[in-house]
Amino acid sequence: MGRWRGECADWLESWKQTFLMIRKSYILLRNVMWAATLGLWVSLFIATHLPARNLPPMHVSDKFLHFTAYFFLAGMIYLSTWLTNPARRWAGAMVLAVLAVYGAIDELLQPLVNRHADVRDWLADVGGAASALALLMMVRWFVGWRQRSCPAAVSRESCVDETKGVVDPMADQAWGAIPPRGEL
């Protein structure tokens, strides 16, 4: 009996160490993603507030640059938010609202550095953000992140929490044991 307890304790300790390593890697990934997102956002802010005479000539449409910049920014913010709180169901709407307001403020500040504010630039910003968010939300839906807690063999009723509705598997199963930011 003693040998079995020792082997079990060794296995349990090994599993615990593996779990801690995975949790630390997850937290590192989350922090790196937020740092990259912040770096991109600061870079875009600086780039949009350089005087027009200091910019190199571009051989692509200004609207394409706006669309692309906000596409990547929205995607990174959405992924960072998802890594921070997977159960947040309205993250896409929040990211779109924040970037729409930020894009408007960004356009309104440009005349201060001898650039022109343009509603079409803002529309390209919002279009890029909305496209990235739609793509990422469709991928999330197709992969079935919200349905993993309800395999076909289990009745649908067992997957419903009375307070939250359908249980979000990313929060309740896969990542539920990972502490929120700052609790390590």
Structure overview:
- The structure is a single chain.
- This protein starts with a helix and ends in a 10-residue tail after the last helix.
- It has helices spanning 2-48, 62-84, 91-109, 119-143, 169-174; strands spanning 160-161, 165-166.
- Strands 1-2 form a two-stranded antiparallel ribbon.
- The chain is 65% helix and 2% strand.
- β1 (160-161) and β2 (165-166) form a beta hairpin.
- The protein has a domain at 36-51 and 58-149.
- It is mostly helical and 184 residues long.
- The longest helix is centred in the first third of the chain and has 47 residues, at 2-48.
- The protein has five helices and two strands, in the order ααααββα.
- The protein is elongated and about 80 Å long.
Strand order of the largest sheet: 1-2
Using the alpha-carbon principal axes, give the shape. Answer: elongated
- Contiguous runs where pLDDT drops below 50 for at least 5 residues: 152-158, 165-179
Q: Would you count the extended β strands for me?
A: 2
User: How many helices does DSSP assign?
Assistant: 5
Query: What is the residue-averaged pLDDT?
Result: 79
Strand content: under 5%
Assembly state here? single chain
Helicity level, as a percent range?
55-70%
Report the major sheet.
Answer: 2 strands, antiparallel
* Cα separation of the termini: 36 Å
